[in-house]
Design a protein that fits this description.
The complex is a heterodimer of chains A (about 190) and B (about 120). Chain A has about 190 residues and is mainly alpha-helical. Chain A has 8 helices and 2 strands. The termini of chain B are far apart. Classes of the chains: A mainly alpha (about 190), B mainly alpha (about 120).
Amino acid sequence: MTNTIHPISNGKTVQEPELIRRSKGGSREAFGQLVSRYQLPVYRVIRGILGSPSESEDVAQEVFLKAYANLAKFRGESGFFTWLYRIAVNEALRARKRRAFANADALPEVEAPPAAPPEEDAPTLATLEKLLRKLSDEFRSIVVLRDIEGLSYSEIAEALEIPLGTVESRLFRARQELRTLWRKSKEAKNAL
Amino acid sequence: MHCEDAARALYAGETPQGLDVHLSACDECRLLAEDLAQLNGAFARARAEWAPSPAFHVTLPLAPWRRLAIAASLLVIPLAGWAFASIRAPQPIAYDVATLLEPRPATEPSDRELLGALFLEESQ
């Protein structure tokens, strides 16, 4: 993914390392190209962890600002997108903790999801969000990176800064828990 | 294949040889496969539908040198305006010599002086 071609406004095409180099040199346009490429996956990762659409946009904004401010620290040892995902996961978890601290007493965790149609077999997105919220931070992050974003085990290891073996075992346990939650949810629905 | 191996393969998203045969014979593992497939369907929908609003736009801060340039230009504008105004200000260069040579009329008497003069006239 590091050699992806990007169009830029003057009609030429630039590869990602070049965009990163230009961004480091202060080119807002080059960084804007990186933003437009990654804003969707970054948003999805945050959304998967946080659940709230509007809050996810705010955190996505923070992620890109942080990436822009810390671009000099990116040395290219890992992929740019795994570096960006790392910031996204950390910022989303931080926002979640902030929210939990602020809303501990009164407010619900996220805005109410839209009314879900009756479920036939697969969980609706609202149900999926509910199931993901019940997972621990570690499990939710890894499920989002693997099952929604489709990162490889080694990319997840880079993004979360954990060993490859930990990725495998954590993902296994996370899926096990998610499946248990889904089964319970279905059984509860059937019991009604 | 045992249930444990089948479950491990299903959770890892793998399809080793013999899995299909095991699933066709084991209700519990088949149920697990179905549940995971349903969750995968939901993940795919999330991938397709979770997107920021069209109004979403990342606003980057200005580079420090640009901020300095803007601050400097904000300072330059009033200075330039002041300099321009001072150049364009009318200079009193044409003197009326006669006016200058003529004795200046005494300053107008104040109300108090006028009243005093009137009072004197009345009394005389």
